[in-house]
Amino acid sequence: MQFEEFSKSIDAAAPPASLNKYAAALWYDAKGDWEKAHTLVQDENSGTAAWIHAYLHRKEGDQGNAAYWYRLANRKMPVVSLEEEWKIITEAVL
Q1: Which residue range is the domain that position 54 belongs to?
Q2: pLDDT tens, 16-35?
């Protein structure tokens, strides 16, 4: 799935069945369901899950927790907007 198609799917009531867990987490985040997005990645042990987890805590405003997860993801805290980071992560996981 391409980013544009993914973005359009956010208007639907449910995520496309073909989405992987990471893309589904970002879909729920875009829908305003931070809790569902967080639940999808919180117990995963991958760099990608840690990156999304970091982004979610950054969005939540918990910078200390976000910094911890960025370190686990081997990434630096970004200086881009949350919207831009969401797009970067989404394009990476699609």
Answers
A1: 3-10+21-93
A2: 999 999 999 999 999 999 99
Dist CA 68 CA 50 (whole Å): 9
pTM summary value: 0.95
Domain annotation covers residue 15: no
Pull the structure tokens for residue 89: 């992560």
Q: Are residues 94 and 6 in contact, defined by beta-carbon separation less than 8 angstroms?
A: yes
Look up residue 45 and give its two tokens: 């042990």
Per the structure block, which two tokens stand in for 64?
A: 């200390």
The rounded distance, in Å, linking the Cα atoms of 10 and 66 is 25
**How many domains, in total, are found in the chain?**
1
Dihedral sign for Cα atoms in the order 72, 92, 24, 31? positive
